[in-house]
Design a protein that fits this description.
about 150 residues, alpha+beta, GIY-YIG endonuclease, four-stranded antiparallel β-sheet, two-stranded antiparallel ribbon, 3 helices, globular
């Protein structure tokens, strides 16, 4: 898939984990946080989350794009120095600490995006462009296009 001046390769469709009955496995990681400092939940830290992994992702650096139902316009663009870790331990499994002020709000936001689209019967495909210059490429793409979920350009 061509995004901007770059050719992105298809990695896989995000598939939330399901239980033995085929229902999406939902969990509330915020309930498992030992909140000794009494931190408040951030605006996206409450409620349910899903779990997922990118089984076909490598531990490489680059820029990734989230695309809904095979559309040609990404809904989200991000960069990673390790694609597999970014998804598997970032978006796909929400750390309890990330649900509170000072945590990774983007992880919570994009996990909820996966869950909502999946509940609507829509798919999110992940595409990837390998590069060691991932920060510059991401910023270039975000300057060129407006995505639905990026805050760097919205």
């Amino acid at each position: 898939m061509k995004i901007g001046n770059y050719e992105f390769e298809y990695i896989q469709t995000i598939e939330p984990y399901k239980d033995s009955c085929g229902r999406i496995y939902l969990y509330a990681p915020q309930n498992k946080y030992n909140n000794k400092k009494g931190l408040p939940l951030h605006k996206l830290g409450d409620g349910e989350f899903c779990k997922f992994k990118l089984d076909k992702a490598d531990t490489v650096s680059g820029v990734y794009a989230w695309v809904v139902n095979g559309d040609s316009k990404p809904i989200y663009i991000g960069e990673a120095n390790n694609l597999k870790r970014r998804f598997d331990m970032g978006y796909g499994i929400i750390s309890p600490r990330n649900c509170f002020v000072g945590g990774q709000i983007t992880n919570c936001k994009m996990n909820k995006v996966v869950l909502e689209y999946y509940k609507q019967g829509k798919t999110i495909d992940v595409y990837f462009y390998r590069t060691s210059n991932y920060k510059a490429v991401e910023l270039e793409l975000l300057r060129e296009m407006k995505t639905k979920y990026n805050t760097k350009n919205n």
